[in-house]
Amino acid sequence: MNSGYLLLFAGLLAFGMLGIFHKVADHPQCRPKMIAVILFFWGGVLTTVYTAIANPKGLVFPRTVLLIGSFGGVVAALALFLFQTGLKYGKISTSWLIINLATCVPILLSIFLFGEKLNIGKIAGMALALAAVIMLWWDKRTDLIKAGVDADGNRPLDASKWLPLMMLAFLGQGLATSSQKALVEAKQGDYVWQFYIVLYTCGFLAMLLPSIRREAWPNRREIGTGLVMALCSVIGNVSITLALKNVKGVVAYPISNGGSLTLVVLAGVLFFKERLHPVGIAGVICGISAILILVLA
Questions:
Q1: How many CB atoms lie within 10 A of CB 210?
Q2: Dihedral through CA 71, CA 72, CA 77, CA 83, nearest 10?
Q3: pTM of the model
Q4: Which SS3 state, helix, strand or coil, does residue 149 take?
Q5: With b meaning 16 or more CB within 10 Å and e meaning fewer, what string describes 11-41?
């Protein structure tokens, strides 16, 4: 088998596990802000080690890379915090899909800021994404009307809190993803790993500074969960980047995005016993289709 496909599978699995561990981090002993601090800290450490050892450009940071990476890191950290907070009111199977629909944001920015052409595929993908968000909100509303509490009988399934938090996380993730497009447009695409170092480091500092006096030191569960999530994030990025040397992007991106999304949805239903109503199932199918179409477009 082509080594590129093995790397692609590793990336798919890593990003799928990242989504699953977001659900594991949805625990009373795991504070969303502290999870973000630890994830970005270890992400910075691991990408620095990888870049120093494996990247021919080494630890060199042009000014443009520092500026774009700093913006991306701060926005990504805020998006992660909002997502982890919103997860307290929702399901990983639907929340993870919404955060992945943020693919729409860099596409829209590319059209309006970088002059890229709007085609039928992009229009269809964004229309499906909007439809998916509406259906997933309706699925959450159905839960609230029918039961008012989640499966453990303790916590409200509050659609009024879940959707705004997820939409803010959606926007933040989309802007953070757009910073990668800005990096390429600035002709700094050869410094992608240096960019990741800056992104993770600035994300760590953005979450650390407001937490120093207000938050207690992280506990073992937060440290362990954050480390595993950082490993999944870095392994996923490294694997996909290396896979692209042997696998075309039109094949790699749909497989990695669609595969990891399917893995997280299945884990939510099978392992975390999350119930999806028919409208929610339709929303998941619609959302995965939107992402595949947008990636191919």
A1: 11
A2: 130
A3: 0.79
A4: strand
A5: bbbbbbbbbbbbbbbbeeebbbbbbbbbbbb
Instruction: Judge residue 285's burial from the number of C-beta atoms within 10 Å of its C-beta, 0-12 exposed, 13-18 middle, 19 or more buried.
Output: middle
Going residue by residue through the chain (297 aa), what tens digit of pLDDT does each one get?
A: 567 778 888 888 998 899 899 888 888 888 888 898 999 999 999 999 999 999 999 999 999 999 999 999 999 999 999 998 888 888 887 888 888 888 788 778 877 877 777 788 878 888 888 888 788 778 877 776 665 544 444 444 455 688 889 899 999 988 988 888 788 888 898 898 999 999 999 999 999 988 877 778 889 899 999 999 999 988 988 888 778 777 776 566 667 777 777 788 888 878 888 787 888 888 888 888 887 787 676
Please count the CA atoms within 13 angstroms of the CA of 191 that sit on its side-chain side.
24
Residues in contact with 144: Cβ distance below 8 Å, sequence separation at least 6, in sequence order = 156, 157, 158, 159
Six-digit token pair at 173? 């993730």
Whether 202 contacts 73, CB under 8 Å: yes
Distance, in Å, from the CA atom of 199 to the CA atom of 15, rounded to the nearest integer, reads: 18
Per the structure block, which two tokens stand in for 237? 């990025």
Which residues, 6 or more positions from 239, have their beta carbon under 8 angstroms from its beta carbon? 7, 8, 10, 11, 14
Residue 15: name the closest of 192, 264, 248, 223 by CA.
264
